[in-house]
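Work Package 3 (structural annotation) set out to generate three-dimensional models for the target panel prioritized at the project kickoff. During this period the team completed the workflow that converts sequence records into discrete structure tokens, so that structures can be stored uniformly alongside our sequence database. As a representative example, we reproduce one entry of 386 residues exactly as it appears in the project archive.
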Amino acid sequence: MKNSSAAWVAKKKIHDASHDASVDARHMAAALALGERGLGAVWPNPAVGCVLVRSGRVVGRGWTQAGGRPHAESEALRRAGAAAAGATAYVTLEPCAHHGRTPPCAEALIEARIARLVAAMADPDARVSGRGFKLLEAAGIEVAVGTAGEAAARLNAGYLSRVESGRPLVTLKLATSLDGRIATRGGESKWITGESSRARGHLLRARNDAILVGSGTALADDPSLTCRLPGLEHRSPVRVVMDGRLRLPPGHQLVARARQVPTWIVTLGGADAARRKSYRAAGAEVIEVAPDRDGHPDAAATLKALGERGITRLLVEGGAHIAAAMLGAGLVDRLVCFRAPSIIGADGAPAAQSFALDRLADAPSFVRRALSEAGGDVHESFDSKA
């Protein structure tokens, strides 16, 4: 933890022996599952879950609602009503202590007269950072911190990345043949992987705030970059295109439908003024960033610009140049690979273009977290070792 309250929070990570740790763990697991419902829909806020338990019975549940309001605690208190008095609140992140569009959740819990708070972790936001816990404790409410802290940090890794590093969590998704190709030599890429893999890919879109592709992929594939799973169509992420030369035609569906699904174009300063005007007229936002050494929009600067706009979780879908830029700069936090049982050959398009790697020791490396089968394809998820 990177704040002055670290010692205080560490002290609170000692649970009172009078409480059953297994009971705390069970209710916190439920709160984490509730919080997960908000992924991709609550940015720039964290995805938080809250469970209120009184006399062994759950009296209220809540999770951060779409757009970040109401907060999880407010939702759980609303559902519990008077039954919240004397309850234990299980919250996946420290209750907020600052005034925004709504009053602080710490104050709402105090007014509801809960008896105990169990929080998975502290909030690193400087406006909170231990203040929520101190407010509750000053009101005579018992506070315990640390139950399922690692799982909570993973749930809100995107929020933590934006607060602590100024950029979103980056997940690179690859759909390849067994030999790591994403298209034939003629450019055909639909579909290397099967229907089950594509459905999982759309679920990834629903759980991320934004999706990013390069202009080459946008021009070659004409993608809609929306979530098309039944019932989750409203969870389509912000569409981001890195286009340093503004090659995307104003009539391209990513631009033409920018008022229906938000579209941001990342480009370089001084790019064609008339083209930028046409994008803005269609409802797309144009974001200028500095160039990298090759004259393309810099990957790190792009992530910083997205973080400044509140994006916490970014899904990178292609193409090979964008994948190489992100990997080469050490900006990929998670890697999701779908591998089809086919071989395309060396003349097919690689998953990542060259990023001037000379030594194996410098290669981006990952730890596999999950392995499964998706309709004949292999699905693997990795975390960066960095």
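The longest helix spans residues 21-36.
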